[in-house]
C-alpha cells in the first residue's frame, strides 16, 4: 500500500466539509464541479477532467475542420492522397449531417459549415462552463 501524506489527508478532510461558496462552478451534485480547497488548490472531479479533454479535442477538430473547408475552395486538390484523404474522411461525415439540413445556395455556396461550427462552439461553451475552464 502507498503511504498517504498527512497534508493530503487534511486536504481530503477539508474537502468533505465543502460550503457552497467554495464551489467555482457547481452543476449537479458535485459530479461536475470544480472545487477549491483551503490551500487554494483546485481539485477536479473525474467528470471535469473528461469534459476538459473533450473541449481540447473539439478545439483540435475545429482546426482540422477549418483546414478542410479552406481546401475545398481549391478545385484541383487531389483528395485521394494522404494527408488530404484523412482530413476528408475525418470531416465529411460531420459536415454531411449539416449538408442534409442546409442545401447549397444556387448549387455553389455551401453554408452548412457555419451551422457545424455553431454546434461545436455551443458544445465547447457548455463544457467550459461546467469545467470552470479559464483560457
Keywords summarizing the entry:
135 residues; mainly alpha; two-stranded antiparallel ribbon; 2 strands; elongated
Short recap of the structure:
The protein is mainly α. 54% of the residues lie in helices and 4% in strands.
Count of DSSP-assigned helices: 4
Q: Into which percent range does the helicity of residues fall?
A: 40-55%
What spatial form do the alpha-carbon principal axes imply?
elongated
- The N- to C-terminal Cα distance equals 38 Å
Keywords: Membrane, Transmembrane, Transmembrane helix
Protein name: YggT family protein
Pfam family, one: CCB3_YggT
Transmembrane segments: 111-131
Notes on the structure:
- Helix content is 54%, strand content 4%.
- It has 135 residues and is mainly alpha-helical.
- It has a two-stranded antiparallel sheet.
- A hairpin with a 5-residue loop joins strand 1 (34-36) and strand 2 (42-44).
- Helix 2 (46-71) crosses helix 3 (84-99).
- The chain crosses the membrane at residues 111-131.
- InterPro entries: CCB3/YggT (IPR003425).
- Keywords: Membrane, Transmembrane, Transmembrane helix.
- This is YggT family protein.
Task: Describe how the helices and strands are arranged.
Elements: H1 6-16, E1 34-36, E2 42-44, H2 46-71, H3 84-99, H4 112-131
Antiparallel strand pairs: 1-2
Helix pairs in contact: 2-3, 2-4, 3-4
GO cellular component, one term: membrane
Transmembrane segments: 111-131
GO biological process, one term: chloroplast fission
